Amino acid sequence: MAAASNVTEILFLGFSQNQNVQKVISVIFLLLYTAIVLGNGLIVVTVTASKGLTCPMYFFLSYLSLVEMCYCSVTAPKLIFDSFLRKRVISLRGCITQIFFLHFFGGTEIFLLTVMAYDRYVAICKPLHYVTLMNRRVCGLLVGAAWAGGLLHSVGQTFLIFQLPFCGPNVIDHYFCDVHPVLKLACSDTFLISLLIILNGGSISVVSFAGLLASYAVILSSLRSRTAQGRRKALSTCASHLAVVGLFFIPCSFVYMRPCVTLPADKIVAVSYTVITPLLNPVIYSFRNAEMKNAMRRLVSRTVIWEEK
């Protein structure tokens, strides 16, 4: 429990105080969450079960899909459940736990997207050394580093919040616990902690985004010497990754790379990176990829034949 805290539970205002509107929103979130789990789960199963998808890109994609499912699961199920209750509440311990996992999976996703940009850089700019540079061991280490980076980021954010006393009020204008809304409830001077939180989240975002931009600057420069067909193939793969990067980084930057204040738009922006990006991930990365679609068809065919037997 946070030090000297009288608050034991926190109330969410959610999207609306109208119970009927909130139930409609809950049904929408339930449909979106189901699609996220099914779509990203299908990617994980397909990459794991298909012997032909051995490229590191698919290895990283399977972990990205796993993180997307976990990330969305931190907030969506509680929103769906709470929308059918008259009182949307979470314990203070539960709130801090939600912040921990939100930033754990969010930080891991940032690092995974950076790793995937490096993978594309090696594949396009150093094709002769690709197999050596991106062998299975290296890929495993990069994924492990992404998880470790997300964990360190989350521990830092959660530790800063954990030290604060909460004396009341206990109402936040959001649908889940996050650092900025919760900071407003603290009954102590939060200037230094707010600054550290911004530095923690901002430094990760800035460094990762700079790495992404550097990778694609080099990639675009190297494509000038390629054939038209080679450029189209490389740009198609990179465009998918850049689309996900933009959908995730831009709204996250709006929320976390500014002074610790809450804005009415924060709830809508949060939906974009906690729900919309995980929802579009399968469409952007996989359903536009012929190799992935063929692998999915083969997997479904094998499943149908096995069930018939």
From TrEMBL:
Pfam families: 7tm_4. It comes from the Eukaryota. Residues 39-285 form the G-protein coupled receptors family 1 profile domain. It is a multi-pass membrane protein. GO terms for cellular component: plasma membrane. It is found in: Cell membrane; Membrane. This is Olfactory receptor. One of its GO terms (molecular function) is G protein-coupled receptor activity. The chain crosses the membrane at residues 24-45, 57-76, 96-118, 138-162, 191-222, 234-256, 268-287. Keywords: Cell membrane, G-protein coupled receptor, Membrane, Olfaction, Receptor, Sensory transduction, Transducer, Transmembrane, Transmembrane helix. Its main location: membrane. The gene is LOC105996046. It comes from Dipodomys ordii (Ord's kangaroo rat). Belongs to the G-protein coupled receptor 1 family.
